[in-house]
Amino acid sequence: MLLFGALILLTRLMRRVVMARAEGVFNDYLQRNGLLGMLVGLVVTVLVQSSSITTSLLVPLIGAGIVQLEAAFAVTLGANIGTTVTALLASLAGNGAAVTVALVHLLFNLTGTLIFYPLPALRRIPVRLARLLALAACRNRLVALYYVLGVFFAMPLLFIVISKALGGSR
Fold this sequence. Notes:
The protein is mainly α. It has helices at residues 2-17, 20-32, 34-48, 51-63, 69-91, 96-116, 120-139, 142-165.
């Protein structure tokens, strides 16, 4: 509850602090140039070494109407690519297997970006799903709770059970 209150206050504060003109320039620039948005996400994530921080900073900006969801999607994709830099750097101190895993992480994020972002029809899928989930959560706050519990607890547990049942652990 305290976290939600802090996010609401942060959103209101950011709305007051950012002038309408600066807001328009910022949003237009990111909206027109998705690659710039990805670069912003990548650079911020490399600097703070956390895609969670980058995407958490976006939430109040979107809530305040400063950044559009489509522009935030590009920044998030850049943040997902940027988060691989930390893994790559850490893997250099390890063995070949560590470097391989870090490169797979990078290639996974690059491949996902190359599949979804260049084609506008595919790019709209995650944005539409996010909007639908947000509308459902606005209508009933329990939807957000069920989503978090389902995606972060129930699904992994289900996959672990299926893996164990199929003889995945040796």
